[in-house]
Specification:
Two copies of one chain form a homodimer.
Chain A: H1 12-30, E1 35-36, H2 38-45, H3 49-58, E2 69-70, H4 71-82, E3 88-93, H5 97-106, E4 113-120, E5 129-130, E6 133-137, H6 141-148, E7 150-155, H7 162-172, E8 176-179, E9 192-195, H8 198-225
Parallel strand pairs in A: 3-4, 3-7, 4-6, 7-8, 8-9
Antiparallel strand pairs in A: 1-2, 5-6
Helix pairs in contact in A: 1-4, 2-3, 6-7
The complex binds nicotinamide-adenine-dinucleotide (NAD) (2 copies).
One nicotinamide-adenine-dinucleotide sits at the interface of chains A and B.
Chain A binds a DNA duplex (30 and 30 nucleotides) through helix 1 and helix 3.
Chain lengths: ~230, ~230
DNA sequence: AATTTTATGTTATTTTTTTAACAAAACTTG
DNA sequence: CAAGTTTTGTTAAAAAAATAACATAAAATT
């Protein structure tokens, strides 16, 4: 029976929530708490306690009845699942406004997930340090990725270059890409790809604001009719 | 029969994809194309053509058999659904590294969705202009939000202040919040909330890199056994 | 000691989202 | 012009995710 890949079948959403649970748990631990109930975790994440318990069931973690979950234990269990033992090294590709902001933000946040270099094509940036991280030329991508065993790339180049740079990343042996470029990229199946577009999210918020507005208008109409 | 709120029941995911379709369509239009097939849209977004057609069916848009969809028409239809006629005004709250990067990025991208001001508490930033946008003191939130009819807030303050500032935004009458802070905030039901955490996404990518690694190790094991 | 309360863990159900199946129409080709 | 191909639009099925239901046990209360 497979043991190692047991967690492979966890729902994607559960993986996301595990990361969020851990972040919340770390804060609770700092505040001196030792145990936590499913409804407390749920409240922080504004989800239901059932969902929390179900996620924890899926990873096979058990709490204590009427006492809740041991925070340190749970952090360790989650870390064992989502963290790579040897740690995963990442690169920020495209050290512009967003790239530098991200670099600064991520730096030092996670023990097993570290941004170790940046890449850019601008002479102004190549060779410079940002938050203690060296920016290399994109021409050195292959070499640096291999030398430093970088597996993850955060893509923040101008949209026009997304695909070109993505191809280079794949060739260099990158295993996962987080694409913040508004242009969807194409990568082989064995490279894990996650894309996020801020405009889309923003437009979604705007849409639901609009919907809510229209609902209210309609309600007013009704009360006027009555 | 309700007409105005017909689109209220569209799946959330469809709304997201509509925004993405439009972005892709705008690029196609610029390139001089007039018509597009569902499989072309699908290929850009790396989803299936069926999903594209299903989404378009849901919004009641019809293409031409064997000719595809009229790009300009479709853009207009999507815009009619997701854009607010009067336009929605947004504020960036917390003009730090991320806030300024976002402001610069969003500026001028969409006709009906505009960032019109920034807010901060730092004396260094209050009164300054960033990309032509004035940064106001958080103390002026109520006044400015009302004066300029701002409905959407992009929250990029330090995590420690997320909740405080969110409360103020709600009191000021903001209708939707996009929270980039790693701390989930609580808002009343009538305020639409979208949260996004980069660390979570990053950890998700790292997790699937790890999983893929372990799968490969196992395969090697097997071929060794055989 | 019996009863009530509070939480967990699991199975069942519902909802949401994606994918598949296929009929119908328009064009192409032999 | 008949047969085949392509592409849409829709209904049906499957898969994924969230929610509900509930049995169980520890602690608190009566
Ligand atoms: N700024 C934001 O908040 C934001 C938000 C969402 C998405 N984005 C997207 O992220 C990307 C970067 O945005 P930005 O605001 O940081 O832009 P930016 O212009 O500030 O930064 C782009 C950087 O990429 C570098 N670059 C150019 N070509 C390159 C290449 N081939 N390889 C490596 N580096 C290269 C440039 O020298 C520059 O440093 C864009 O695609 C943008 O659409 C930005
Ligand atoms: N930098 C990133 O790429 C990144 C990525 C994801 C999330 N975040 C999150 O976004 C937030 C901002 O990150 P940052 O890197 O821009 O930080 P930053 O320190 O550069 O910016 C924070 C800004 O908020 C201002 N501020 C402080 N208190 C405020 C208040 N009460 N009201 C309004 N403004 C206030 C500060 O003066 C500063 O200008 C943080 O919560 C961070 O965790 C940042």
């Amino acid at each position: 029976m497979k043991v190692k890949n047991y967690y492979k079948n966890l729902p994607h959403k559960t993986i996301e929530r595990l990361s969020q649970y851990r972040r919340a748990l770390l804060i609770c631990l700092e505040n001196g708490k030792t145990h936590i109930f499913s409804h407390e975790i749920a409240s922080i994440q504004h989800i239901t306690p059932v969902q929390v318990r179900r996620d924890l069931m899926l990873i096979g973690y058990s709490g204590t009845l009427r006492k809740g979950y041991n925070i340190q234990d749970l952090i360790d269990v989650i870390s064992n699942i989502i963290d790579d033992e040897a740690g995963i090294k990442a690169a920020v590709v495209g050290m512009g406004n967003l790239g530098r902001a991200l670099l600064k933000y991520i730096r030092g946040k996670r023990h097993k997930l570290e941004v170790v270099v940046g890449f850019d094509t601008s002479e102004d940036k190549i060779g410079k340090q940002y938050n203690g991280i060296t920016c290399y030329s994109l021409d050195d991508l292959d070499r640096v990725v291999k030398e430093k065993d970088i597996k993850l790339a955060i893509l923040t180049v101008p949209a026009a270059y997304s695909n070109d740079v993505a191809d280079k990343l794949v060739k260099a042996g990158i295993k996962g890409i987080l694409n913040y470029t508004p242009k969807p990229i194409r990568v082989p199946d064995e490279v894990y790809l996650e894309e996020y577009d801020m405009i889309t999210t923003l437009e979604k918020v705007a849409f639901y604001i609009k919907m809510h507005q229209e609902e209210e208008e309609e309600e007013q109409q009704h009360s006027h009719d009555a």
